Request: fold
Amino acid sequence: MGDVKLRGYRSARWDEPLVMDMTVPGERGVFVPLAEREVEAAVGADSAAFVPESARRAGIPALPEISQHQVLRHYLRLSQQTMGMDLASDISEGTCTMKYSPKAHEDLCRMPQMAEVHPLQDEETLQGALQIYHEFRSMLCAISGMDEVTLQGGGGAQAAYTNACVVRAYHAARGELARRDEMITTIFSHPCDAAAPATAGFKVVTLRPDERGYPPLDALKAAVSERTAGVMITNPEDTGIYNPDIDKFVEVVHEAGGLAFTDQANANAVLGVARARDAGFDGCHFNLHKTFSSPHACAGPATGAYCCSDELAPFLPVPVVTFDGSSFHLDYDRPQSIGRVREFYGNLPVILRSWAWCLSLGPRGLREASEVSVLNNNYMMKQLLAVRGVSMPYTEKRRLDQVRYSIEQMTEETGVTCFDFQDRQVDFGVQSVWLSHHPYVVPEPFTPEPCETYSKEDLDYWCETARQVSKEAYEDPETVKTAPHSQPIARMKGIEAVEDPAKWAMTYRAYRRKIKGENE
Amino acid sequence: MSEDYFVHPYIPNAVPETKEAMLREIGKEDALDIYEPIPDRLRFKGALDVPGPIHSEAELKRHGKSVLRKNADCDAYLSFLGAGVWQHHVPAAVDEVVNRAEFVSAYDGMYYTDQGKWQAKWEYASQLAELVDYDVVTMPFYDWGTVLGLALRMASRITGRRRVLCAATTGPERLTVARTMCPPAEMAAHIALETVAYDAATGGLDLDDLRAKLSDTTAAVYVETPSFLGAIESHCPEIAALAHDAGALFIAGADPISLGVLAAPGSYGADIAIGPIQPLGVHLNCGGGLGGYMAFRDEPVYCGECPLLLFTVLDTEREGEYAFAEVMEERTSYGLRDQGRDWVGTGAGLWTIAAAVYMSLMGPKGFQELGDTILKRSHYAAGKLAAVPGVKQLFGPGFFKEFVLNLDGGGTTVRAVNARLREQEIFGGYDLSAQFPELGQSMLVCVTEVHTKNDIDRFTAALAEAVRPATSDGKEA
Reply:
């Protein structure tokens, strides 16, 4: 580990105004093309004539009037007040798999043959895009052991929703949907594994962990019945614990007549190591913006790739991309399809990046990425569990790619909460640590995830920042409780507004009306 | 394709000495020992059937480019495709900002570390609010279709009713997505989705059919303006009144690019407005540039039933500084899992920033002028194209950006015509014959500010050449 020197990090702080307050009447940021004289000669100079009176805009939209450089500068300054994975250490954002997104991929995405392609072009003019889609589909079949894939989902939760719809259609096709209305999940599975089936119309049954950290098989046996539609479960779960009975879980669900889906949004522990189909699952999904390197982009565009068995393939959303040996096609003729979960067929630039990432790593590199991620996590775990006030719940002490830690002891002894911890740690130039999904089953949680991107020095540095915050908590808790001290803004005031309709202001116009007391 | 060990540039700790030191530190001898938690029977023993590795970046890029060059694109071709994703000019300053590493690589950083991201997103909401005329704009989601589904579900919860009406001129892809989000009849959570006919002469909503289908079980009426077929709906105030008289909500779908010249949904009584954000500074990206917005009045019931993220502005301890935070987090699926409102997740975050920059650059004058240009050029195009023998325009003037051309008089198919146009490096309009069979052989033509008079004239000449009967052996191209 050696000596680690903490950085004297200071965020950029521009005291940037709100864009609406930058307005100077008469300025503008860009000219737009105007209709040619010949066009006006043909159709008239007054375009309002084409709009029924009842549908004409009354008044002008109160957008800001700002020159181009001033607009650019404003948003570049805001970018500087955004830490971002490329600059900081994003070991902090556990469950998110914040890995490096290679810049070569961005160059490809910006080619007009990607950026300026319309999804409704005839398929003979889409052969490059469809080839990438189809080849990546085959890679995911190999990685998951599944038979077919759709890349339509615009995020992980939409892939989970795809599964809920496929399960719905499967049982409907067998005439059992009216009876099979329950979906089982676990409390440490991602919230979408509960929310997506609930949206699809299922009642959700949630299993809780026992002292080992994962649900006992008996709890599942007690939960299944003739009403069971399926299970949607993450493994390893948010805690980093791998459920070693996972294939038995699948068996129990299958015996009850249900389908088994595993949420592999974050599959970074298991590439080339364990495959969903080998454990008996009927479906799984991957987040291409997590495991497969596409950047997170302030929360999208993203892709949730849904993979399934041959038995479920007829229900996949349309279109399915096929290959006839010489060219690629969009197959819409699938009578049992659930329809669509999203417009068009996928976020192609995201798929392109993931395809390129797999190609550059190859089979052995993919497995190496997983092995090093798990090694990184175990290495960090040893250091973090030696930090005063930090512990790891549950009797199962082995973890794969991440760990949900607790600082309950630190909170009891110093009053420093996980929120204080989070706000102080960022002063050392690491991203705010992910605490936990709700509910906080683990008290005072935090969840880092050191994927393969990070060097040993990065891991040591992150651990040192945690060690420093702990030291301060015990010696000088006020420094922690008044943090952050080096960020773009000082501490927030009036956070209660987030629950108060009289005080919240989701837009500038609401802010002027409610907070500043101005009339429009 | 060597199987020799390599240290990949993306995996620093693959250096054998580093690995060994780390393994020693954790008391393991072999890297495989770290996989103890996975029982042997569940471990994959083979080699993944995945191609690669392509070691060098140079070779990877060359390969990627060679595959991508099999695509044609709308820079090289003259394209008149719209139908859900539209070719508008993207100012260079927008690309400069959205390609910044900080924004591209940011994710869930919290209020302090990612303050700039939060502010940019709030400014997206603030500016879009002026276009649509509401006090609340949510963070967007995957696409317009998903947001339509969510809006219908919101309306169902708010009214306690389970039937929704959508105009038959709703974008067919959007409508299919929305149907997927309405549980089927076998389920207790069933939501019935029915369509309302359109007027064959104007393309607007058939108000008689709406009256016939509205009842005290209707949760929502959804109408787009301009519609998928391009028609500007002239009866929005009446539709709002009819919906409200029945106790239903009126949901309007509106392309924000039109709102410099078309009425804002907040001004004609829509309770919820939704629509696409791709036109606001996002490239086509083969469908990878989508995002759907939602807006409504600042009322607790709407905020409380909305599944999407809402951000508020706050003060800080330093005078004149702004912070931004999430509103009523508990109501979402992140807060309450299956008891939350539908679901939310990673969707279209970067495009809020593109749209924020775009709207700041355009300003009020930009939107007015853009609307004016699109109205004039698209009507010019409709006039020229409809003068081609065998071609007629359906629904007449009074459209925005898109319009329907019927080719039945030419004795041919849209498919055949588009194939001939491709030989001239032109993408003709979207073929409506599968989704709107009642319109015969018709195409939906999209004309925006990127299309000059010369482009339109070139298209007209090529169409005149392409509209000819299919050959007698049935081959179309």
